[in-house]
Specification:
Chain A is an alpha+beta fold. Chain A has helices spanning 2-9, 37-55, 91-113, and strands spanning 14-20, 26-31, 61-66, 69-75, 80-85. Chain B is an alpha+beta fold. In chain B, strands 2-1-5-4-3 form a 5-stranded antiparallel β-sheet. In chain B, a hairpin with a 5-residue loop joins strand 1 (268-274) and strand 2. Chain B starts with a helix and ends in a 6-residue tail after the last helix. The chains are: A alpha+beta, B alpha+beta. Strand 3 (61-66) of chain A pairs antiparallel with strand 3 of chain B, so a sheet runs across the interface.
Chain lengths: 119, 369
Amino acid sequence: MREILSELNEHAGVKGSMVVTEDGMIVASALSKGLEQETLAAVSSMMIQTAKKSLDSNLHRIIMTSSHGKLVLEDLGNAYIVVVTNSYINLDVTLIEIQSAGRKIRARERKLEQPPLQG
Amino acid sequence: MGFFQRLKQRSELRRVRRDAKEFPTPLIFVNLIDKLVECEQVEEAETVAKDALTRFPDSELIRTAYRRLMRLRNKEELKALRGELRRSADPLLYARLADLYLELGEEELAQDLALSAVEKFPQSDGNYIVLGKIRARRFAVSHQAKDGFLSIQYFERAVELNRDNYRSLLTMAEILVEVGQRTRALQVLEQILRFAPNDPRARRLRERALRLPNADERFLEDAFRKYEDLYRRGEGHRYNGYSPAERFLKEPTLLKKKLAQFSGLEGLKFVVALAPGGKILASFTAPGERVDRLFLAQKAERLFNATEDCSVRMDLGALKHGLFDGGDTKIMIMRFDIVRFALFMTRAVKVNLLDRAVRNFLEHELFVN
């Protein structure tokens, strides 16, 4: 999973990414220097929980834009992929990359969940 | 380019110039900058861009246009400096390149470069100055305690390494006066006046500092926290004098009309404007929709608090906007100075149209009368 995140981080403007559960448990992370893993997990969990309460439904995605960076959270089913980018990234392109990374993570997860073949 | 095409371009430029005089909004300034570049009047475009950045320091559109233009103007110098740095890793070169990035509006690149330089060359003052300047600029727009406090820390380190660092000392004193730290500011100003006793800026600043009450906070961080708190509550004054939302606090009826402009947005249910503290300033409910205004305003307030906290803790600067997508429901929150807006929508909303409407609202509508 870390490999998929590292590959995503190679995309221009991406500073780091992480897979985190709703209650803030870190599944995997690949963050550049200056980004604190525990802080990102904690704020992501807080954002997910607040957003779910406010939306009264599932949460598919959050896109937060601040003066010096952006944060994207995307639903993976059992967890969320969180991506931190710089402020002048083209999100249209980056979102495609994030979705693609999400699909790969879900596929890997399904593979791991399959029972081993008998005989 | 043919004669008629040039003629058409010039007439368009005249029209945008007129618009910029009549409706000086970020969106129109960006149009003017683009038109000037198209007509190869790049020097004037730079002057307009700098003016626009001073008028609208918080505008995303202006910052992007400025960055694009400055990159174009300074392509060669950037290339040369990068080449020099590749040949010899010198702390002065790092500082020069980081400073150039900063002037070009590339704050994040400047910060990354200066941070890597202070790790390699901790005894060189130049990169601490750049880091101090970055945080000071951010503080002037965001009014966030973290930015102000860090700028002082970086400048202090630069002064430790070079006692006669005029610019660092002066900016430090300006910030300390701004947050009401009389004794601390006077100490810094004394340092300047020791080596530049007739400096008019330091003398003026000293007079301002002497008029402050003698009530420094024991810990400097607390002074910044109190300053940020006042700003968030809409009670403090603005460091940069930029207060475009103040008129809406005084006359919320102005906002009501502006919110109604979202009525054309398919899928919109409700939009609300909140004053600092969460009080409803104005709202608009789409025809045929029945909503509990107070309940939705409280939801918006909670979302704002969580998102702003996230932005500060992740050191991403001041929150601009956020989109929360739940499939059937979508919520967009956005900040304009100290007024906060939230749009509640159904799945029918098209995100590209929403983006366009929000950009037009934040970068144009809220500035016109």
